[in-house]
Amino acid sequence: MNMFTGIIKGIGHVVKLEKQAETATLTIQSDIVTKLQPALGDSYAINGICLTVTSVQQDQITVDVMPETSRRTNLGRLSIGDRVNLEPALAAQERLDGHFVLGHVDTTATLVQRQLDQNAEVLTFELPATYDDYVVEKGSIAIDGVSLTVTATKQHQFSVSLIPFTLAQTTLADRAIGDAVNIETDILGKYIVAAQRKETHA
């Protein structure tokens, strides 16, 4: 199983996108490809989605998107020229700076508010009600692959606070009100909620 940290290593641009029903082939161009020189079969998180590299050409990688991925994520909304967050899979000897991210997106959330708070910007998202139990204040969450701390929660909504560095190094600065983002809730929370539900129904 591949792991990620939610610490974005680079920004890529969509240069080719072939869609057919709920599948797609996506080609991303980025300096990080030239720098890291991925091999065929390597895993990359693209906007937080763990995808397998099927082709490498100079500064470009190509990945295939299956129907399950299209249904749960915002990849179907991408267009040529769009920016995406990139992170290669975590190597065993690497430092873990963010939190454990699997690249298995749970759902999408909608940006409903951007608000300045001195040197930070607070982004508020609306989440499907079925995921309320998985998002807790001061817990971890991955938004388009970016590891962030939840700063506030209320029914069907949560907020995160971003410093200028995070905005500059990720695509979250591009997000406008109404945009959909990929959400991966904390894996530890998933197991806790699942265990509690099993006890309730035992």
TrEMBL record:
One Pfam family of this chain: Lum_binding
EC number in record: 2.5.1.9
Originating organism: Secundilactobacillus odoratitofui DSM 19909 = JCM 15043
Lumazine-binding repeats: 3-99, 100-196
CDD domains listed in its UniProt record: Riboflavin_synthase_like (cd00402)
Function field: Catalyzes the dismutation of two molecules of 6,7-dimethyl-8-ribityllumazine, resulting in the formation of riboflavin and 5-amino-6-(D-ribitylamino)uracil.
Catalyzed reactions per annotation: 2 6,7-dimethyl-8-(1-D-ribityl)lumazine + H(+) = 5-amino-6-(D-ribitylamino)uracil + riboflavin
InterPro entries according to UniProt: ATP_synth_asu-like_sf, Lumazine-bd, Lumazine-bd_dom, Riboflavin_synthase-like_b-brl
Subunit record text: Homotrimer.
Name recorded for this polypeptide: Riboflavin synthase
Keyword terms: Repeat, Riboflavin biosynthesis, Transferase
Residues in Lumazine-binding domain copies: 3-99, 100-196
GO BP annotation list: riboflavin biosynthetic process
Listed GO MF terms: riboflavin synthase activity
Key word Nucleotide-binding present: no
Pathway named in the protein's UniProt entry: Cofactor biosynthesis; riboflavin biosynthesis; riboflavin from 2-hydroxy-3-oxobutyl phosphate and 5-amino-6-(D-ribitylamino)uracil: step 2/2
Superkingdom of origin: Bacteria
